[in-house]
Write a structure and sequence with these properties.
Length: about 140
């Protein structure tokens, strides 16, 4: 647990929260500034600043948990869709530097704004990049 990290304190029960799920590795809470009704956050109990610091072991459990909790929220809230959002770095919108996955239920006509303007792909650049990345990722 990192001393000055609010999500470490919430995940490990030092600070209270609206908890909807807890196990040895995670606490799932309701977001304090929800984008929509039911907006939840998956918090690992182990501190990791972002996805790239998260252990593979914990990371592998995040999506199955999002699926389980998300399915229950879909059922209970009768929402029309759901976004999973996970921000890494200030530029990407991260404001709390302890890994978390947002589960955002979506409703027809809601005000959540999770979108971008599609750009034009630079085919040459993409081809070169794809080749290079393929060699590195395994
Ligand atoms: P991000 O911008 O991806 O880092 O998301 C941080 C999220 O944490 C925001 O949606 C905040 O509303 C939420 N948040 C910050 N502090 C708390 C807190 N004490 N309890 C619950 N959610 C929080
Ligand atoms: Zn932390």
């Amino acid at each position: 647990m990192k001393e000055d990290c609010i999500f470490c304190k919430i995940a490990n029960g030092v600070f209270g929260s609206y908890t909807l799920y807890e196990d040895n590795d995670f606490r799932v809470i309701f977001d304090i500034g929800p984008a929509t009704v039911g907006h939840a956050l998956i918090l690992p109990k182990q501190h990791a600043k972002n996805l790239f610091e998260l252990s593979d072991e914990v990371a592998a459990k995040v999506l199955p948990l999002a699926k389980r909790v998300g399915a229950v929220l879909m059922e209970e809230l009768h929402c029309d869709g759901m976004n999973l959002v996970q921000n890494n770095g200030e530029t990407a919108g991260q404001t709390v530097f302890h890994f978390h996955m947002h589960i955002i239920p979506r409703y027809e006509g809601d005000r959540a704004n999770i979108t971008w303007t599609p750009g034009e792909p630079d085919k040459e650049k993409l081809e070169a990049l794809a080749k290079k990345i393929q060699e590195i990722v395994q």
